[in-house]
Specification:
4-stranded antiparallel sheet; alpha+beta; 28% strand; 3-stranded antiparallel sheet
């Protein structure tokens, strides 16, 4: 399961800013427990796949999981040892932009302490701080 779009309207986009809080997607809405971002950041499509695999291995068919991110931003990169100028580089990889306060993952059907240990393992692999949240 690839976390990249099949087709896009524009091939390359501008960098943008990562300031501000997440309004949409800031509450646990599908599962019982979630992992919420405390800082803004980027996750590449390979990191998202790594999260999906480690979540599936930890849950072992017990419970249901939701990944509430999608890598929809192309990141360009110019090749090594190329002189400045000559336009923007080719698309290197795809990123998911995560604002502060966004719920990244959700799980349901597992006990609270087990969900906390699973999310703690995943939190070690993320490039920003996260916290465990529950549905209200």
């Amino acid at each position: 399961m690839a976390f990249i779009p099949k087709r896009v309207k524009y091939r390359k986009v501008m960098k943008g800013s990562r300031t501000g809080l997440s309004v949409a997607g800031s509450r646990v809405s599908y599962g019982d427990f979630g992992l919420k971002a405390l800082e803004s950041g980027n996750l590449s499509h390979t990191q998202l796949e790594m999260i999906r695999v480690s979540l599936a291995r930890a849950l072992r068919r017990s419970g249901k999981s939701w990944i509430r991110l999608f890598a929809d931003k192309p990141v360009t990169k110019k090749p090594q040892e190329v002189r400045m100028g000559k336009g923007k580089g080719d698309v290197d990889h795809w990123d998911a932009i995560i604002p502060r306060g966004r719920v990244i993952l959700e799980v349901a059907g597992v006990p609270r302490d087990y969900a906390q240990t699973v999310f703690k393992k995943i939190a070690y692999k993320l490039p920003f701080r996260v916290k465990f949240v529950e549905r209200q």
